[in-house]
Design brief:
Number of strands: 12
Number of helices: 11
Shape: elongated
Pfam family, one: Phage_capsid
Number of domains: 2
Strand order of the largest sheet: 5-12-9-6-8-7
Protein name: Phage major capsid protein
Subcellular location: Virion
Radius of gyration: 43 Å
Organism: Pseudomonas sp. MYb327
C-alpha cells in the first residue's frame, strides 16, 4: 500500500514525526483508494448492464422482424456479457483487485461470429448486409450525334407547312434590243407539309421502391428520356412518314448515280462534288458504324493503313466534310446533307410525368412514369439531301 501513496503523502511523511501521523496518512490514502475502486466498479456495472439491455432489445427486434435479424450473434454476445458479470475476476475487481482481467467464456466459441453459410458446422451465423452499387446497370447507350448537327425550329401546331422548290430552270439572258421580250424562267414550287409526331412510352414502379431508392427513380426517368431521343434520331433518319409519323431523311434524299466503278470513299467524294456543282454545300455525312470501319481500315498494296491507324484513328471526316455514325443508318447507304436546308421541328421538349391516378395505381400503390416529346422534320430543298449506295457490286 505504501507504493500506492501519493507523492504529497510521501513528502508529508518526511516532515512529520511520530506513529500517529504515519497511520493517519496511510488511512487517508486507503480511503481514497477505496473510493476510486468503488466508483470504477459501479461505472463498470452500469455500462455492462446497459450493454445487456441493448443486446436484449436488439434480439427482440430481430424476432419481431420474422427472424431476419442476426439473433444467434446477439445471443452469443449476450452470453459473453452475462458470464463476465458473474465471473470471479469481475468480483475481485469490484473488491479492489487489479482493474484489468481476463475471463474465458466457455459457452461461446469463436465460431459464433461467422457469416451466414460461411462457417463450419455448428457455427452461429450472422447475416452481414451486402454492399450494393447504386444505379441501374446493363444500360448500353449509343451516341446520338445527329441532334447536335441539325438546326432546330420551334413549331406551334401539329403540322408544319412550307413551300418547297421542286424544279427551277434558269433562262436568264441578255435583252439584246429595247422592247424585246425578256426570257422567262420556270419555277415549280409545291406546298409541303411535315407531320409533328408524338413519341412516348411509359413504365410503372411501386411507390415504395421510388420512396426507398430515389436514385433508382432518377435512373428510370433518365432511361425513358434517352429512349425518346434514340427513337427520334432513328425516325429523323429513316422514318416511314404517313399519318402521325415522321418522314425521314432517306425518304427525302435524291439518290446519287455513281459514275464508274469506284471505291466507297470515292463514290462519296463524287456525290460531294455533285452537290457543290448543283449549288449545295455538303456539311454532314451520315453512315452506319460498320461502313465507317470498313473505310477507315482500308489498306494499300503494302498493307499500310490509308486513313490513320489502329493506334491513331483518322478523324471522322471525308473530303473535308464532318462525318457521324448511327446504328439507325442502314448499312451500305450514306447520306449527305446541306444542313442549312434541313431543320428539326421542335414542338415539345422531352417531358417526364409521374401519376398515381392511372388505372388502379392509387389502390395498388403503383406510380406510372410517362416520357414523351413532339417533333418533326422539314427538308426545305430535296436536292440538299443526297444518298449514296456504297454496297459492293456482286462478285466485286
Amino acid at each position: 500500500m505504501l507504493n500506492a501513496m501519493s507523492n504529497n503523502a510521501r513528502r508529508e511523511l518526511k516532515t512529520k514525526s511520530g506513529g500517529d501521523q504515519i497511520e493517519d496518512l496511510i488511512l487517508k490514502e486507503l480511503q481514497t483508494r477505496d473510493v476510486e475502486i468503488k466508483n470504477f466498479s459501479e461505472n463498470a456495472v452500469k455500462e455492462i448492464t446497459a450493454l445487456k439491455d441493448r443486446l436484449i432489445d436488439l434480439e427482440q427486434k430481430g424476432q419481431r422482424r420474422g427472424g431476419n435479424a442476426p439473433a444467434g450473434g446477439v445471443d452469443a454476445v449476450g452470453k459473453m456479457a452475462d458470464e463476465f458479470t458473474k465471473s470471479g475476476q469481475f468480483a475481485a475487481m469490484k473488491s479492489g483487485g487489479p482493474t484489468t482481467g481476463r475471463v474465458t467464456v466457455d459457452s461461446v466459441s469463436i465460431k459464433a461470429l461467422t457469416n451466414a453459410g460461411q462457417g463450419i458446422t455448428g457455427s452461429t451465423s450472422y447475416s452481414a448486409t451486402a454492399q450494393r452499387q447504386p444505379g441501374l446497370h446493363n444500360d448500353p447507350r449509343r451516341d446520338l450525334s445527329l441532334l447536335d448537327y441539325l438546326p432546330s425550329l420551334p413549331a406551334t401546331t401539329s403540322t408544319f407547312e412550307y413551300m418547297q422548290l421542286k424544279d427551277y430552270v434558269n433562262n436568264a439572258t441578255e435583252q439584246e434590243e429595247e422592247g424585246q421580250q425578256k426570257a422567262e424562267s420556270n419555277i415549280d414550287a409545291e406546298l409541303e407539309t411535315a407531320n409533328i409526331a408524338t413519341i412516348a412510352h411509359f413504365t410503372r414502379a411501386s411507390k415504395q421502391v421510388l420512396d426507398d431508392t430515389p436514385a433508382l427513380g432518377q435512373q428510370i426517368g433518365n432511361l425513358l428520356d434517352y429512349g425518346l431521343l434514340e427513337k427520334l434520331e432513328a425516325r429523323l433518319i429513316a422514318g416511314p412518314g404517313g399519318k402521325g409519323k415522321i418522314k425521314g431523311l432517306i425518304g427525302y434524299a435524291v439518290p446519287h448515280v455513281v459514275v464508274g466503278t469506284l471505291l466507297p470513299v470515292d463514290a462519296i467524294g463524287q456525290a460531294v462534288t455533285a452537290m457543290k456543282t448543283s449549288g449545295w454545300q455538303a456539311r454532314l455525312i451520315i453512315m452506319n458504324p460498320n461502313d465507317w470501319f470498313n473505310i477507315s481500315s482500308e489498306r494499300d498494296a503494302d498493307g499500310q493503313y490509308v486513313l490513320g491507324s489502329p493506334r491513331d484513328p483518322a478523324p471522322a471526316v471525308l473530303w473535308g466534310v464532318p462525318l457521324i455514325t448511327s446504328g439507325s443508318m442502314p448499312a451500305g447507304t450514306v447520306l449527305l446533307l446541306d444542313t442549312s436546308q434541313v431543320a428539326m421541328l421542335d414542338r415539345e421538349q422531352p417531358t417526364l410525368m409521374l401519376s398515381r391516378e392511372d388505372g388502379n395505381n392509387f389502390t395498388s400503390n403503383m406510380v406510372t412514369l410517362l416520357a414523351e416529346l413532339r417533333a418533326g422534320l422539314a427538308v426545305f430543298s430535296t436536292g440538299a439531301v443526297r444518298s449514296v449506295d456504297i454496297t459492293p457490286a456482286a462478285g466485286g
